[in-house]
Amino acid sequence: MACSIPLAQWLLVAIAFQVLMRPGQSAVVVDRPGPEDADAESCLLQKPMQQHALTQADETGPRAARLQLASAEQEFERLSRWPEACNGPFGPPGPNTTQKSAYCAIARETGNVYSGIINSPSSEKNMRPSDRYRFEHQVAISLTKTTVQDQTTKEFARRLHNLIVAGGWLNGVAAPEALTNAFGPKCSLQWQGFVNNKSSTIETVLLKNGNIREIWGLANCLINNLPVLEDIFMKANASFFEGALGAAAGARAFAVVQERKAQVLATASMPGNVKYTFGIPDFLWPTKNSWANFGYGASLPQEVGGGVVWVGARNYTGCTETDLMTDSPDIFPPLSHREIEAQCEGNAPPCKLQWLCANCFSIVADSFYAERATRNGYRMVAGPSGTTANMFQLALSLGFTNDDLLAFRVVMTAWLVQLNDHSLIETILAAEAQMPSEYSMQWGRKSSDHDKWPDFQRIWPKGTTLQTSWGPVFESFDFLP
């Protein structure tokens, strides 16, 4: 996306950049439940509703218009000092890098940064925080019940199992040991869906009857044990992937992994303090144009001033243990017998779950993400979902196609929103960089929209039929109230 845009557009865009150019420390949003949530019984329902001070965009009337215009004019003057800010190629910062040129290198490649920033209220903007939570949770449950979620999750689990077992063969390791080595080390009963690290259980979950929580919980264990995948992807050749995943899927997977391998190796030679901002340091790292990059702060190297490029969207505050019991009606699907037995550890159910709550982060109020989400009126939980970006890359590395990612967006939303790891907009944003254009997201409502939830409808656009690369055809379905 070019930044040489007309003055009128600059004036609209400028407000968005105000936060990036603001000096001083980041203000952290205070987490506390609203009064309407005082009677909530679980940590899922007690998820803090972010409290924000009014911004200029929240004010109304002539004074607000004057403030906006003055701010926009000031920002235009500031931005105009860097006429070449967006003309250079994307890449690591050079000796003449400025904060704005480094930011623009990413922003111009990131979809939906510029469009619709002023007049695009979200479908949920006027809802109370507690109602937003309940609405999003119900959407996630509806998506969990779909054939799309069920069949996509099962096919992903099958391929993941086959990749790990075949990877064991590369190192002379039998299947049981390969499975426990891959999925066991980084997980515990505090992880939602985790049961145990016995190879027989892992195989049953992945190949027979694992639920959405168990299967994607194992996948999450794996991406936190990245050296296992790194070893496979560095060593494996085309015949390996075709043997593990089938001829067509294997060929696609090998091409994706080889392209990512070149990026990983190139990043390895970069200075350590810019690898994570300007490079692709590992096989599952979010793409350079991913909104997930805004989850963490970025700065220039010290040799070019060390200035802040953008403020991270969230701060880790520590997780708390859930108050939910194994028979809680807030859990869908209900816990499997495996999950109940593991969580109760020999005691008679129901028992209290050992899961850590997803309430682990505070949103940084003057981050670019928080400014944008607040302006549009979206619910925030933990910033754009890095897990979504990671799982999308893993899916492509298993031979799924870009079009298949439409089904995976349904799955990620169902899984992560129901666990309250993320909000609807946070999974949608993180998916955007890798979605085909015909499935692209929409910021807020347009004046021409007649649907009640036009932005969230984009999770599966109305009338869309998907012919998956592995066989099933998924028709359009209803998932919104």
Describe the structure.
- This protein is mainly α and 481 residues long.
- It has a domain at 142-315 and 381-474.
- The protein is 44% helix and 4% strand.
- It is built from 18 helices and eight strands.
- The chain has helices spanning 7-21, 62-79, 99-107, 129-144, 147-170, 175-183, 199-209, 212-223, 227-235, 238-245, 247-268, 275-278, 337-344, 368-376, 386-397, 405-418, 424-432, 454-457, and strands at residues 31-32, 49-50, 298-299, 308-310, 314-316, 361-363, 466-467, 473-474.
- The strands form four sheets. Strands 1-2 form a two-stranded antiparallel sheet.
- A hairpin with an 8-residue loop joins strand 3 and strand 4 (308-310).
- Helix 5 crosses helix 6 (175-183) and helix 6 (175-183) crosses helix 7 (199-209).
- The longest helix is centred in the N-terminal third of the chain and has 24 residues, at 147-170.
- It is globular, with a radius of gyration of 23 Å.
Question: What is this entry, summarized?
Answer:
Keywords: Signal. This protein is mainly alpha-helical and about 475 residues long. The chain is built from 18 helices and eight strands.
Whole-number mean pLDDT: 81
Beta-strand portion reads under 5%
Count of extended strands: 8
**Given the structure, what is the number of helices?**
18
Radius of gyration: 23 Å
Q: What strand order characterises the main sheet?
A: 1-2
State the order of secondary-structure elements, H for helix, E for strand: HEEHHHHHHHHHHHEEEHEHHHHHEE
What general form does the structure show? Answer: globular
Please identify the structural class as seen in this structure: mainly alpha
The largest β sheet comes out as: 2 strands, antiparallel
Helix content: 40-55%
| First-last Cα distance | 35 Å
